[in-house]
Amino acid sequence: MVSREKITRFASIIISGLLFFLLATPLFASEADLKIPDLSPAQSNLLYWGFLICILGMLFGAYMYSKVKKIPSHKCMLDVSEIIFQTCKTYLIQQGKFLLGLEIIIGICIFYYFRVLSEMPLGDVGIVLGASIVGILGSYGVAWFGIRMNTLANSRMAFSSLEGKPSKLLDIPLTAGMSIGVLLVCVELIMMLLILVFLPRQVAGAAFIGFAIGESLGASALRICGGIFTKIADIGSDLMKIVFTIKEDDPRNPGVIADCTGDNAGDSVGPTADGFETYGVTGVAIISFIVLACTKGTDYQAFQAELLVWVFVMRVLMILTSIGSYWINGVLTRVTQGGKEKIDFEHPLTTLVWITSLVSIAVTFAASKWQLGALPNGLWWKLSVIISCGTLAAAVIPEFVKVFTSSKSKHCEEVVTAAREGGASLDILSGLVAGNFAAFWLGMAVLVLMFIAYITSTMGLTEFMIYPSVFAFGLVAFGMLGMGPVTIAVDSYGPVTDNAQSVYELSLIESIPNVEKEIEKDFGFKPRFDVGKQYLEENDSAGNTFKATAKPVLIGTAVVGATTMIFSLILLIKEKLQVEPESILNLLNPYTLLGLICGGAVIYWFTGASIQAVTTGAYQAVQYIKNNIKLDENASLSASTESSKEVVKICTQYAQKGMINIFIAIFSFALAFAFFSAPTGDMATLTGQAKIFVGAPISFFVSYLLSIAVFGLFQAFFMANAGGCWDNAKKVVEVDLKEKGTDLHAAAVVGDTVGDPYKDTSSVALNPIIKFTTLFGLLAMEIAIAPGMQGKAGWVGSIFFVIALIFVWRSFYCMRIPKKQ
């Protein structure tokens, strides 16, 4: 008999196909007109150097991979790492099957539109299909690399802790992170260079969009599902410390292997794919703006080509600045920290971020002067200032985050103090305070930097383009990603440090007979069990902090970049409806306020739906672990493989259920609200106030997109920082105060489990959700305002709205914790 889950999954994929089928026609109808200008031989030669640098960057990533792999580790730890990797592999293969189904449906839509309806040459259709496939494989492929890299590094780091050299424990996860960060950016950039340099001009625009859709699909599925999986496992494992008063990562706990898998699924697979997609989609948005908006002057195509090449040169140079800054920081760290018994693990990571930011800003000005110096009005330094606002934001935002999440921060100290007297209740309340204050200060930081960018855009950019402020905001997002390899590296630092502790405990290395003599004989040093675990826990606290710092940077790029993508909708309204956008998109239009309210409502539903999936899954995991954990004297020192696999199965099941509900609802809302916003009459026959009145509903959808971005930004800021603060408050209790097993520890663990879905599920998934809603929403609007939809848009919108509400209903009522009979 076919299970209910299989029927639901099949129905979900069919609905997904329907959504994408309806999106296919308007997508390529408009983006096929995105004509990439011809490049001169000199410009093409310059980009050929970009290929070379990308290839060298990929070789650098491979070298760093091999460097980590050569680090020795004890067999008992290598065996644990391999179990974790194999479990992660099973999870990724399952995710790949779901992505394959979506990609097949998209491929059919692409082929049908271009080959059957538009009669495009078969070769060009293949190019667009190939770009979409490359995009989704890119997100999926870098996720595989990230998970393999981290599962190699965790056992090496766990074993190296026994040497008692903290500087080595800093180097291993950072080397692994740089390998992932540099390789990720180089792979993404070389794909986009291939499209820009070698594809025919008439198909390059559609290929760029196809590439962006592919990587967005991959990243969103992996980010949402991974975020749910990891926190089901984490909560299930952590709560056992309270229920049974057992130690962190106790090998007898069947949830520990699932937790290790989740660390990689949520904190490695998700962020790696997300970073790949963020870097690509932001680049596509900038390219689209240059081609669509830089149309002033008689020789505007030459200007477009100059800007496009400049953008790609800047991206290529940022690979070199990141690698160079990593090397400089390494030298400084060895000079200042080498040989010390006690180091501040956060300090070298902080200096790496700041060195990279300052070097990148200097290179931005130098390269812009070299490439754009001949353009009038000092355009080179104005664009450099705008990009530098984003690059500076990528360093300033982490500093603000540390104020609220670092184990040394006053807010983290406040959470511990509150928990000591008031238990879990005051622990949670104090963490909420930290999250709210963080949202305020991060919002102010983004405001100041975007305002500087806006002011700079008013200094003569209108001679070259329309809506220069939109371009400026897009360049800020571009600048925030300028130090992308380092941002990804410090984000990837966390899952390695987290897993290393688990590998240490699961290996049971301290209980192996004569292990000290074995290590001294085979590896040449005397193990220091007394300090090894202490170093691992201290380093994990630094990893928690810097995982928290990377999240606002990525969510910030999504929101700032969304303004550039919404620009396409503004042009669409102006061109298709022959109406000035300013006459409709204003606060005096009541539809504007309605759209703002609607966007906020969807963000809060998404937050609840993602946490509900975690809650129900964690309930099932806790129930299973409590019934199957063996703690009696005669029991094995480690949990059975079968029990661990069952916990992983529970996590995967509820992660996919939650992801399907969220996916379909988000798509359906975008389509429904776009159709509801269609003009109520034929605007071609109207003039003056009559045209404005009939077109007024359009403001509803534009406001909805902006609201999704702004509400999502502050919700993510709040949740990521509150969760990070709770997490490190627990670390303070465990590492600094050494009060494991106390009432204070129990309160801190409860706070941490509340923060788990805050920081690693809902907040991080808002990044791809914002980009998905914007990208697909813009395309949906093109359908809604097409002449053939007049009189039908409202009915079609109602159908999709009902579909959305069904999956909103399912996201709670079909995900509820089952009542005990």
Describe the model.
By secondary structure, the chain is mainly alpha-helical. The chain has 21 helices and no strands. Helix 10 (379-405) crosses helix 12. It is globular and about 85 Å long.
In whole angstroms, the N-to-C terminal distance is: 25 Å
Largest sheet features: none
What general outline do the C-alpha atoms trace?
Answer: globular
Structural class: mainly alpha
Number of E-state strands: 0
The topology string of helices and strands comes to HHHHHHHHHHHHHHHHHHHHH
Rounded radius of gyration (Å):
26 Å
Count of individual helical segments? 21
Measured as a percent range, the helix fraction is: over 70%
Task: Give the percentage of residues in beta strands.
Answer: under 5%
Low-confidence stretches: 13-32
Q: Mean pLDDT across all residues, rounded?
A: 87
Short description:
This protein has 821 residues and is mostly helical. Helix content is 82%, strand content 0%. The protein contains 21 helices and no strands.
Topology:
Blueprint: H1 4-31, H2 41-69, H3 75-117, H4 122-160, H5 166-198, H6 201-243, H7 255-293, H8 300-337, H9 346-372, H10 379-405, H11 410-457, H12 468-480, H13 484-507, H14 515-523, H15 529-577, H16 590-628, H17 641-676, H18 688-695, H19 698-736, H20 743-784, H21 793-813
Sum up the structure in keywords.
single chain, 821 residues, mainly alpha, 21 helices
